[in-house]
Amino acid sequence: MSLLADLTAQVLAFRDERDWAQFHTLRNLIVSLNLEAGELLELTQWKNDTEMAALASNAEAHAALCDECADVLIYLLLIADRAGIDLEAAARAKLARNAERYPVETSYGSSRKYSATADGKCRHGP
Amino acid sequence: MSLLADLTAQVLAFRDERDWAQFHTLRNLIVSLNLEAGELLELTQWKNDTEMAALASNAEAHAALCDECADVLIYLLLIADRAGIDLEAAARAKLARNAERYPVETSYGSSRKYSATADGKCRHGP
Amino acid sequence: MSLLADLTAQVLAFRDERDWAQFHTLRNLIVSLNLEAGELLELTQWKNDTEMAALASNAEAHAALCDECADVLIYLLLIADRAGIDLEAAARAKLARNAERYPVETSYGSSRKYSATADGKCRHGP
Amino acid sequence: MSLLADLTAQVLAFRDERDWAQFHTLRNLIVSLNLEAGELLELTQWKNDTEMAALASNAEAHAALCDECADVLIYLLLIADRAGIDLEAAARAKLARNAERYPVETSYGSSRKYSATADGKCRHGP
Asked: Do the beta carbons of residue A69 and residue B85 sit within 8 Å?
């Protein structure tokens, strides 16, 4: 059993022991993932670049980063389960598409590529 | 090598081939994860509950959900790498804490538990 | 003195009495506005369409909506001040552009217009 | 007629000419405000503090900031209208509460106050 499948099974067992599947609509899970992403963003609030560079080496901040990253992963697993998404396959497919979108020769060392929208799609970069 | 370690290695190789590590500060990665979470949220925009229930079974919408979930996972792996976070351990630790926070007997079938802040911490539920 | 100018003056006086301008970089203010928008989103979490329809008529929820909308407005005024933006002029200009983008004859009663990206720009609708 | 009331009337007229009130549920408007806040955040993506400090003086970036701030304000006016919120009163009431929460003597020049949660409420600061 793959790691993601194993973690997903653990998350679903937690959910079902509490009869919480009824609250886990795709919308609720996506909104919740956004709120957890926001808690991660909150850890950067009011910090300048120097303070950000030191953040991960502060024990309390590191624990908070772990905590919020875990919440994002847990909701991502729940969304994938609810929407019938194979996260590993989706990530590998996306990396393959990004490799075409950002050829090494034209992308090397350039952050400009990040905001390219050649294909008309809103994109924030890989 | 675990799946997450293997996916992370692939993401880091993609990044380093393009010399993009210089753009991947913890702040930039957290902001980017928030923007990708927002693209997931955008897939729910203007949809009522009935439309949301049908979303994942629409081929085009399913592909878009895969795409955005992949982006969220990719940035989450980059954040974990940058901040020195073991995502699997963090998720298992969080599930253990949530099990204490939400005892089955008091949480069963109740969405009220979701907004509990007994410990004074901002929480959006497991 | 216009209302927005008057409110802005009050917000700036509050900030300066506390010597907080040093924390109000454009980035910090934009991140903070996103976090407050997230608190507004949190008020919708776990609620279905029926519960959402009743939300504003619940006294406690109405007070929370007021509170979060106020926070969003306060940060928007601070961003506009920091970036030298005339919010009223910007809003009127945007409404004029939207009127061209969404002609009544083709937009009437259609939510499809909301996701149109004819101009290649990411758009979520007016 | 106050400025906010006048702007709101213009936004509602735009909406009603297109029969769009049917799409403007409180949830849809709050999600849309979050997406527009995200577009504002996107303007900060991949930028370090030095680049951020120069952002507002770049003509193209300034126009984009105006555009996104206008979108946030327009959705905020629509939310206030839908939820029966007096934005001006809400902002003045919030500033009064913040003045109590952050006494000048203890808050002067301190960013620590920003993350205070003495009252147990999630807060990101004024």
From this structure: yes
